[in-house]
Amino acid sequence: MDVVTFGETMLRLSPPGHERIEQAGELDVRAAGAESNVAVNAGRLGAETAWLSKLPESPLGRKVAAALRAQGTTPEVVWSDDGETRQGLYFLEQGGEPRGTNVVYDRADAAVTTATADELATEFVERAGYLHTSGITPALSETLEATTADLLELAQETGTTATFDVNYRSKLWNPEDARATLEALFPDVDVLFVAERDAKEVLDREGDAEAVARGLTDEFAFGTVVVTRGDAGALAVRNDDVFEQPTVETETHDPIGTGDAFVGGYLAARVDGGSVADALEWGAATAALKRTVPGDVALVTREEVEAVLAENDSGIDR
């Protein structure tokens, strides 16, 4: 197994086009979750992937598992028949400026919030090359905070490279609580992905992307820190070397999931033996392609990513 991820996957319900939720007569339904997005994205680019989680034994839970399986990743799921838990949902209303995009969560009491390491298929973590999760997961419940810590610790014990995306969500917790929880997890993380805005707002870091990456590396001994900077691209620090990657120009149809596409492309390249510089290129190309695809997942092919790389030939500093 190349990459195993852990986290919640919801069902995303979206009105067609730019309709408001309150006027919609129909809703498009897709499976969507940061960690499963990464698993699917990396899997479509050649990695063998699995997603660990807990779902309700219900038509909605089975829909999530079936959707991920159809997209090429293995759902290793604990099935809950507890009538007190349910399938998490979210409603996405796309809108141009000045209205913008609005997300409405309906995820309280989701089955995943009760998932413990003891009941998960942790043998996948033990034999995987990479374990990936994000800051969304420990924000969902105290149980998931403990489970995330347990899985990261297991990865360290078994030699699995642990990767973590800060992925801050203000609708889940405040910056102070997020920082305290995340910094307690960081000693068991090998590769950190963080948006520059989250580094400043949540982790209280100052300076440019390189200063942020070096400061985090010095304090928590990360093997690699990748700072994403929106239109300014991404920067990584590894073994005191600095790598910069510009964004790839794209026509945006659906930006949701762009960060997960970047991480999926990055991990797929590393699994394939690529350098950090190669991985940044693959991340940028996959993220650009994702923005042309509706839904949360980068339903793209390895050949399409390679074509984007050949066309752009970014000239990244190696």
From TrEMBL:
<dbReference type="GO" id="GO:0016301">
    <property type="term" value="F:kinase activity"/>
</dbReference>
<protein>
    <submittedName>
        <fullName>2-keto-3-deoxygluconate kinase</fullName>
    </submittedName>
</protein>
<dbReference type="InterPro" id="IPR011611">
    <property type="entry name" value="PfkB_dom"/>
</dbReference>
<dbReference type="InterPro" id="IPR052700">
    <property type="entry name" value="Carb_kinase_PfkB-like"/>
</dbReference>
<comment type="similarity">
    <text>Belongs to the carbohydrate kinase PfkB family.</text>
</comment>
<dbReference type="InterPro" id="IPR054871">
    <property type="entry name" value="KDG_KDGal_kin_Halo"/>
</dbReference>
<dbReference type="InterPro" id="IPR029056">
    <property type="entry name" value="Ribokinase-like"/>
</dbReference>
<feature type="domain" description="Carbohydrate kinase PfkB">
    <location>
        <begin position="2"/>
        <end position="296"/>
    </location>
</feature>
<keyword id="KW-0418">Kinase</keyword>
<dbReference type="Pfam" id="PF00294">
    <property type="entry name" value="PfkB"/>
</dbReference>
<keyword id="KW-0808">Transferase</keyword>
